[in-house]
């Protein structure tokens, strides 16, 4: 370790959707690495301490090192040439970069989707049907006296969720911290989160919907079937007790994870939970919140929504955005064999998608941006190694509750950031598309387009 | 493109400079209106056309957290109304809550060159600014929600007036806002903390001993003292409730002779008993406005068809959910704000909806000073900004108005005076309520007029008998000297700039705010204020007492 | 639950159907920061947590290699016992990674997401 240590206060960890912005980073300026990350959880420590500068080419075409300019040119050509180019990923980069990725996809009339589709996509669909009573995390800290986690294991996936936002912190109307709250955990398996709970509920596997629907019925004063325990694995008294607690709390919150969205029922499960939280507002103040995974997946939802009107699974092939989950979502565009080129930003579908989708991905030209070598970048036609958001570059990240936070970088990286690569590709793609438009259209409009370069 | 230009032969409506339809040459250089230009300037022949300053929307909801939640909520609203891109403009989707690009381009296609987002949470300011950067053509700014800010209320409770003034100015600076927005002052705490209840009376005191009136008075006084270019923008208590006009009158009285702007006043002009059908109190409200020159308002006209209710007034949205029985969003912002969203549909056959429509028109038609009673639909709450041309026709064409009146609920019309109102707005008055008036209320000295030194934001319409058609499709739109629309076609893209203010404050106030922040917010104090990277193109409008 | 007992040339083997729940774990999270092509991540994502009673019945001990198989594909992982009260009988947990992808069907039933937390797989001990 060198003696040149710089301290960055109130830095932000972008590893998970908690986006904790109270990090104190100790940076070895000469060695270009973070040597200490105070306040970081186990995941955050790994995130900060393992992101060192590796000696590797910034840009490669088919595994051979090239200049960044050459790689941008090849990326743009590849994407413009394709008939059904797809853009995917985006949850681990800044919203500034996300905006450029949507722009590229718009210009090339491609298909854009984010990791939301394989994470809380079903919750997004449920949201469109039901809406959502929700709040920022500070309101949970200040007010919540009943906190329910459903189908999630924050102790391992979001380690500071309990301590910083929802269980132990002392808030305006919860001065006693955990003493002032009742914590309920609903999960089919015991996890490292279980010890935090005052009440543990273990439904039968795949019976979340039934449990939620039973609670809705109880909240509305309906009688349940006698065999409810047989169906759900949860005793009637437990359900009745929970329903009463929910109706009588001052400020209740339901956090839900992928144990709900990825299992049998999918968007129906999320919908049942959102509907339950909505119903409870007849009696008290009640909110719900999906516990989002990646650092800026919420930003991806926001950016794609404000630019297109839809949160994910968006296709521009007709020259305007269309939304169809199940068709324009990435597992589908790949597994169906529709995609003929891919721009993958800050994501590694080649290591966690279904096998059939991975097989197709490996058969088409891929342009990939990532901070590290992954299954996706290693076989990419054009691969960019980029700097890490929140460690090397600033930009905006949206926390799981839509609160936007500006990142404070710790040290400079020799590699460019996602935004600048994507801006380069965007400019080139737009030039190529205008040229293509002129060649095919040759209309007055095209001439006008050529005469006025975009400002 | 930002070279010099000369617009000849057009009839000019420039109320600020007392030009009412005279044929006059307009010269542009470097994005500004100038006296003259050299002979090599581009010439636009506006023979048979009407030239107006670019329009200014003083109250709309176009960017930020609640707007984006509304977009996500309603895929069905976008599908029927797509917005194709071109090689040099971006695509998008429309409906009542268009995507950012569609919002900017569509405002431009109506001749609007400036629009103000009327309610953004402080903690969401970055989000609003990011969306603004993706909202092309128009200049824009936002009003920041501060009336339910718990820290500011604590300062008021403790009579710490000087610190209140400083903290208010700090918050404006920290968020890059244009002015302060008050929404249902005092109503958040009962909603969030008392099982979804609300404050009912302007003089009802909360647990801290503070009433809505005291909050309103404090903001009006502080803004007046600090000389913001735009007075506080107030969404009164009891919006939408029968009998609320007394609250509205009391709110106006609270201002004394200080400037105040009341938002979407139509929604606040109802008589009758709470919980029962409303009656029109447009006359009582507009008479008060007419007689008090310190008061300005925008109407918040209801237009039939789809709308999206989006408001920081969460209890109101919950009431409406009770009617629609459909999807609903509630979104609480820590220590600062509430929010409710409900997709809505105003229908001609429904008594209340027709009455709301009629009250809006009554307010317009009984207004004596167009400079102070401005055009808005509270987009998208009363209807989309895309319905402004139709609204203009309703105001300018009494025979059209009569035709429209045949289609609506007649017993609602029996309850109000709309049938008796014969007034027709002139083009000059339209130029006032959509341009000169809003710019004046906003304190934007370079907008809303075509005098030398003004921003070259110009709309050129073909003069037509059908005013809806005329205002729907300007032949030319010029923004900051750039021709954006030429012969009805987009010819270039343009970003537009942020308008904001930077009132002075004593930065010792940060030390006062910080401890509260560390205890009750969930992000760090040092990460709260928005830095200058988010400004891009921007203009600081001066504040301070003259 | 289907249990097939039989003989093979190598000796007695057991095939059962399990419900596989892939998910995140903190170790998966920390090791992916080192790099997904590094050994630590590979080890985490090839470790299958099982109900100890299930393992005992199938005569499996910690570290045994098992083959997981379904209509989509198959993969080899090593198993690790969990207390029966922590993980219900008939279920198994694995951190997300390439092995879970091998078994994940691509049909999203119109919602964009594969059914990735409720996968029915056959488990078979690999005899060495």
- Quickly give the CATH architecture of the largest domain in chain A: 3-Layer(aba) Sandwich
Q: What is the alpha-carbon Rg of chain A in Å?
A: 24 Å
Which CATH-level-2 architecture of chain C? Beta Barrel
How many β-strand stretches of chain A? 20
Percent helix range of chain A: 25-40%
User: Major sheet of chain C: size, sense and barrel closure?
Assistant: 6 strands, mixed, barrel
Using the alpha-carbon principal axes, give the shape of chain C: globular
Describe the 3D structure:
The complex is a heterotrimer of chains A (455), B (546) and C (128). Chain A is α/β, with parallel strands linked by helices and 455 residues long. Chain A has three domains: 5-50, no CATH class; 59-119 and 295-385 and 417-451, Rossmann fold (3-Layer(aba) Sandwich); 121-290, Dimethylsulfoxide Reductase, domain 2. In chain A, 38% of the residues lie in helices and 19% in strands. In chain A, the strands form four sheets. In chain A, strands 5-4-18-17-16-6-7-14-15 form a nine-stranded mixed beta sheet. Chain A has a five-stranded parallel beta sheet with strand order 11-10-9-12-13. Chain A is globular and about 70 Å long. Chain A starts with a strand and ends with a helix. The relative contact order of chain A is 0.18. Chain B is α/β, with parallel strands linked by helices and 546 residues long. Chain B has a domain at 54-76 and 106-310 and 344-448: TIM Barrel (Alpha-Beta Barrel). Chain B contains 18 helices and 28 strands. The radius of gyration of chain B is 22 Å and the shape is globular. In chain C, α1 runs antiparallel to α2. Chain C has helices at residues 26-34, 39-45, 52-57, 98-103, and strands at 3-8, 11-23, 47-51, 65-69, 74-82, 91-95, 119-125. Chain C is globular. Chain C is 22% helix and 39% strand. The longest helix of chain C is centred in the N-terminal third of the chain and has 9 residues, at 26-34. The interface between A and B is large, with 79 and 74 residues.
